[in-house]
Amino acid sequence: MQLQAMVLILAVLLFGVKLTAWFLTSSLSILTDALESIANIIAGGVGFFSLLIAAKPRDKGHPYGHGKVEFISAAAEGMFILFAGIFIIVEAISKLFEPQVLSRLNVGIIMMGGTALINYMAGSYCVKEGRKGKSIQLIAAGEHLKTDTLSTLAIIAGLVLIYFTKIYFLDSLVAIIAACFIIYTGIKVLRPSIGGIMDESDMKLLGRIVKVLNEKRNENWIDLHNVRFIKYGTTLHCDCHLTVPWYLNIREAHQEITLLKDVIQQEFGTEVEMFVHVDPCLDYSCRICSKQNCAVRKHPQETRITWTVENIVLDRKHRPGS
Asked: Engineering a disulfide at 137: which of 70, 80, 170, 301 sits with its beta carbon 3.0 to 4.6 angstroms away?
């Protein structure tokens, strides 16, 4: 939360620097970068507010917590970026055939270079901390800052070219190119946030979970299927069906569920909420069961089912050859 507040303060400061650089140079491409920073400020404010909400504990009205607000915040940030890019293109086209003489470009180039360096360092740190804390909002903010750096570098390159060639209509062309890149970034930020709002499966996350479960599989976990993972804020929710030996009592079956939860929690370092339906093994389960010294085994093990993203989500028990 403190980091998001720093992002907001940084966005305001850098916007002031870019606005000053535009005032000194009259460069439309610098104004483009400054206008894009307004989206940073608005998105930073929305992001900070969303983290305040997401940090609230679950309550009667929100049994799954408030973490989903991060998806809404990231979607808003994507929309802000998208609209800023469209606005910039409209403005740049209107100025394309009426180029304006630019002044003090050397000063503007130095000032823009400073903002690019600060943006990249701040963005990289936000992405790192966001991945560590599993915060989609911080990751989105960090990626936005890093993208802002790339667009600023492109603008600096254009300003250097204009400085030496004195071809001033290039200023509008650079602004249009930068705006296209901004629009692409907005779409890229918007896409996963909408998926999160729609409870779309995170296949990358599921792949990581499947890998861990295969590596740390307990012999009492005969089968695992109908698996669903949803991440809200810092909480990972899991629904699944776990097949265990039919003769385990309730306490022993619960211990297997706790072990399953611990394996996931140790790997991802986050709060895990498990809703597990326990199934008893059936006759055909013996053929995929690797449990040693089973006193009631009716068939020898024929194969070991390797869990994959494709077969672990199916709503059916695994059999030999499936």
From this structure: 70
> Residue 322 has which token pair?
């499936």
Cα–Cα distance between 306 and 61 in angstroms, integer?
Answer: 40
Q: How far is CA 176 from CA 36, 121, 127, 137, 181, in A?
A: 12, 26, 27, 28, 9
Three-class SS state of 278: strand
Angle separating helix axes 28-54 and 170-197, nearest 10 degrees: 20
Side-chain half-sphere of 100: how many Cα atoms within 13 Å?
Answer: 13
Q: Which of 181, 197, 213 is the last residue of a domain?
A: 197
User: How many Å apart are CA 130 and CA 126, to the nearest integer?
Assistant: 6
- Whether the model clears a pTM of 0.70, i.e. scores above it, the answer is no
Taking alpha carbons only, the member of 5, 46, 14 closest to residue 33 is: 14
CA distance 204 to 235: 17
> Are the C-beta atoms of 306 and 211 separated by less than 8 Å?
no
182 and 257 within one domain: no
Place of tokens 């003489």: 101
Whether residues 127 and 216 fall in one domain? no
Q: What's the pLDDT band for 190 if we cut at 50, 70, 90?
A: confident
pLDDT band, very low/low/confident/very high, at 245 (cuts 50, 70, 90): very high
42 and 188, same domain (yes or no): yes
